[in-house]
Amino acid sequence: MSVAKLIFFLAVLFLLSPYGSPALALAIGLVIALTLGDPFPHLSGKPAKYLLQASVALLGFGMNLGAVYASGKDGILFIVTVVFGALLIGTLLGILLNIPSRVRTLISCGTAICGGSAIAAVGPAIKAENDEMSVSLGTIFILNAVALFLFPIIGNGLEMSQAQFGIWSAIAIQDTSSVVGAATVFGSEALATATTVKLARALWIIPLALALAFIYRKGNGKAKIAIPWFIFFFVGAAAVRTFAPAWILPSVFDSLVNIAKAGLTITLFLIGLSLSREMLRNVGWRPFALGTILWIIIASASLAAVLRFV
């Protein structure tokens, strides 16, 4: 067994212990990726994606359906504003920076909705090339890594409430994994709010991908639209928790939520491992500048709105 593989397994054991956390998982993954390389690169693709989706669905067992509805309703105005604002500003900035149409569309969609998942769904719809997908994913992944560490610090520094931080992280951080990771660090109430609002935001993948498939329809054939089914499993899990008969002990649901948190931690570890030196080199300054400027605008504006209205 190579040194990298041995360290990989030791890291997984450590992260599954009481000392592990989402932020630490991402940091350890980054350190291993940038020093020893990813010993299991195939795990950072579909396995990490499915693990994230299963973990998010299981988080529903820790939430009441009424609270899910209330959180989603409270965040809907923020979601609509961010989705359309990010798409508009991203398009204009992309034109100013002379970024190719498909790349600016992918980065704008990733910022507007749910990061890598939105890019993966929209990419086939607009017939994006592999290098365009890689550049866009790399940009979003780097910014998500920064957000996971930075947002809890800002939230604590501004003495945000659990509800405020949950809504802010859900509308200002791109990927679901980093949203849930940051909210987990901040508190259980923030986690419940952030997960619900984030999944409501993720539902925009479907109409957006369909709209872009129509816009890029020339030579597009039948576009493949990825439907985020795990969101409905999350709502179903919350319904089970809400209407469960009295003979089902709450500890059963708590155990499922603990499994979800462990799955999320390992997901972030795998995401950290995927951020290789090659990916960092291939991103390029223009797409990264677009993603960074757009993210700062959205995060700052949404922070001001949340502090004022929530």
Features of the shown structure:
310 residues, mainly alpha, 15 helices, 78% helix, 0% strand
Describe this structure in words.
With 310 residues, the chain is an all-alpha fold. Helix content is 78%, strand content 0%. It has one domain. The chain has 15 helices and no strands. Helix 8 packs parallel to helix 10. The model has no long low-confidence stretch (mean pLDDT 88).
Q: What's this, in brief?
A:
This protein has one domain (3-309).
Question: Which bin fits the share of residues in helices?
Answer: over 70%
SSE order in H/E notation?
HHHHHHHHHHHHHHH
Strand element count: 0
> How large is the count of helical segments?
15
Q: What general outline do the C-alpha atoms trace?
A: globular
Q: Work out the radius of gyration.
A: 19 Å
On the 0-100 scale, what is the average pLDDT?
A: 88
Low-confidence stretches: none
End-to-end gap = 53 Å
List the helices and strands and how they pair.
Blueprint: H1 3-15, H2 22-35, H3 46-59, H4 65-96, H5 101-112, H6 115-125, H7 130-157, H8 162-172, H9 176-186, H10 188-202, H11 205-215, H12 230-243, H13 250-274, H14 277-283, H15 285-309
Helix pairs in contact: 1-2, 2-13, 3-12, 3-13, 4-5, 4-10, 4-15, 5-6, 5-7, 5-15, 6-7, 6-11, 7-9, 7-14, 7-15, 8-9, 8-10, 8-15, 9-10, 9-13
